[in-house]
């Protein structure tokens, strides 16, 4: 057999054998995650809700000298566990965070029992995949220059009337939800009026809108 092929097989075996097994419910959630994770969309909300109370930017509330709000501190050696790191980008085995969130030991598992917080299987899966992908941190979304996104592919593109509709429909389809039928004209006008003025439309406005059958009636 070709020596190069054998070498490749050996490398693949090592890589896969070094990936820790996940609890069944976490593995199921992991398999359902999107192909690529975004720190601000998927990861930071979990850290903020479930981790920052004890390991956030508030120095007075920090426990074990660990903060997960910045990569510099999250990737540093743990003060209370020399030689260990909370997060080692790309390595689950060398990331204490991974071992803590999947542990069955209540005294070892994080979030701690005292915090009255817990991670769902999906939240654990997101953190695990994030670490595997390199644990990239990002600035707050408000400081990131917007980038033009590729329009998602959907099963019913004719339903969309503008590019934004495609993103809405893509999300609905991912949740296996069908779009609701378009509301009647009176309901549309009521929603629009409340959004713009905080008041319901007058009778005259309703009658005018119902009588207007032009293509841009709603816009007018």
3D architecture notes:
The protein has helices at residues 3-17, 24-31, 39-55, 71-74, 96-102, 121-132, 163-174, 185-197, 203-211, and strands spanning 77-78, 81-85. With 220 residues, the chain is mostly helical. It has a two-stranded antiparallel sheet. The radius of gyration is 25 Å and the shape is elongated. It starts with a helix and ends in a 9-residue tail after the last helix. Residues 5-17 have low confidence and may be disordered.
Short description:
This protein has 220 residues and is mostly helical.
Helix content: 40-55%
Could you say which overall geometry the principal axes of the C-alpha atoms support? elongated
The major pleated sheet works out as: 2 strands, antiparallel
Q: How confident overall, as mean pLDDT? A: 88
Number of DSSP strand runs: 2
Spans where pLDDT lies below 50 across 5 or more residues: 5-17
| Count of runs of 4 or more consecutive helical residues | 9
Strand % is under 5%
Strand order in space, largest sheet: 1-2
Q: What is the alpha-carbon Rg in Å?
A: 25 Å
Q: Which structural category fits the helices and strands?
A: mainly alpha
Order of helices and strands: HHHHEEHHHHH
Question: What is the rounded distance between the termini?
Answer: 74 Å
């Amino acid at each position: 057999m070709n020596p190069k092929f054998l070498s490749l097989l050996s490398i693949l075996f090592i890589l896969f054998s070094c990936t820790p097994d996940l609890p069944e419910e976490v593995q199921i959630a992991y398999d359902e995650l999107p192909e690529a994770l975004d720190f601000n969309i998927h990861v930071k909300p979990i850290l903020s809700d479930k981790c920052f109370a004890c390991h956030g930017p508030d120095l007075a509330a920090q426990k074990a000298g660990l903060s997960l709000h910045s990569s510099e501190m999250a990737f540093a050696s743990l003060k209370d566990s020399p030689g260990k790191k909370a997060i080692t980008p790309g390595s689950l085995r060398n990331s204490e965070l991974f071992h803590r969130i999947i542990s069955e030991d209540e005294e070892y598992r994080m979030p701690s029992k005292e915090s009255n917080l817990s991670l769902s299987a999906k939240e654990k899966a997101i953190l695990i995949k994030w670490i595997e992908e390199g644990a990239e941190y990002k600035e707050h979304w408000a400081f990131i220059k917007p980038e033009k996104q590729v329009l998602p592919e959907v099963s019913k593109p004719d339903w969309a009337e503008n590019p934004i509709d495609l993103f809405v429909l893509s999300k609905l389809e991912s949740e296996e939800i069908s779009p609701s039928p378009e509301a009647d004209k009176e309901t549309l006008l009521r929603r629009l009026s409340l959004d713009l003025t905080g008041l319901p439309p007058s009778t005259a406005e309703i009658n005018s809108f119902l009588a207007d059958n032009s293509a841009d009636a709603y816009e007018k």
